[in-house]
Amino acid sequence: RMTRQARHTWILVAVVLALGLAAMGETLRDARNAPRPLLADAPQRVDAIELACASCDAPRRFQRVQGRWRLIAPWDVPADLESVERLLGISAIPVRRRFGDVPAPPESLGLAPPFATVSLGATRIEFGTTEAIDQARFVRIGGQVALVTDRISVTLLAPPERFVDRNPFADLRDGLAGVVEGGTPWPAARIAALAAWRAESVEAVPADAPRAGRALRLRDGAGREHGFLLAMREDRVLLLRDDRPLAWLLPAGTTLPD
Question: Is the dihedral of CA 8, 12, 15, 17 positive or negative?
């Protein structure tokens, strides 16, 4: 015959099991109802990215070279890693709805031509217009159309200079080893101060823009030389590369080395 204590124990076990099953059911429902990523089978490794948009002058192309991302078009420069990660993150954008059949003519969805396209390796993703009610964006991958949370429009429309590494010396192999200005080598302390610079932003420089400032010859750890120009815009320091139409704008308060 079951004692009162045993009966209470079994009642407690039953309550615990019921609560556990209820929690498990809630977890399964949440998982079932959670938004699915855009690419269920995202590429394990992407070594090439291409971004194009209807209003862009030219595609932006990225390549992973020896483990580091480079923007290889329209210029060949080290890429800003955060910007590349945002492009790679497109594969995980939450899907609001997938359509078995295309819900409307592609033209009405902004997919003919697309607003923008991103190729992650061999996977091409086309972006269309935004849906009127909740501003989700239509996307197409192959023959499948979906509505996704619009988190990427700013990146898709960004000018190419936004994808450039804000370290102006990221292209120098093995670091900055020497600086010569007007035939005079810089002392080590001044070189170290220059090497620590990080730009607030990167700008494209028009071909016909005047170039005036302090000409520098930088030598990297591999012995290669690079030409730069130190300039001022009002009270801000600019650092320009001789062989690229780019300028790195330094944060306010940055001063020219003595």
Answer: negative
Whole-number Å distance between alpha carbons of 232 and 214: 10
202: helix, coil or strand?
A: strand
- The predicted pLDDT at position 135 comes to 78
CA distance 52 to 22: 48
Rounded distance, CA 78 to CA 163, Å? 9
Q: For Cα atoms 83, 240, 52, give the angle at the middle one, nearest 5 degrees.
A: 35
Q: What is the pTM of this model?
A: 0.81
Cα 176 from Cα 198, distance rounded (Å): 14
Of residues 88 and 33, the one with the higher pLDDT is 88
Q: What is the DSSP string of 66-119?
A: TTEEEEEESS-EEBPHHHHHHHHGGGGPEEEEEESS-SS-GGGGTBTTBSEEEE
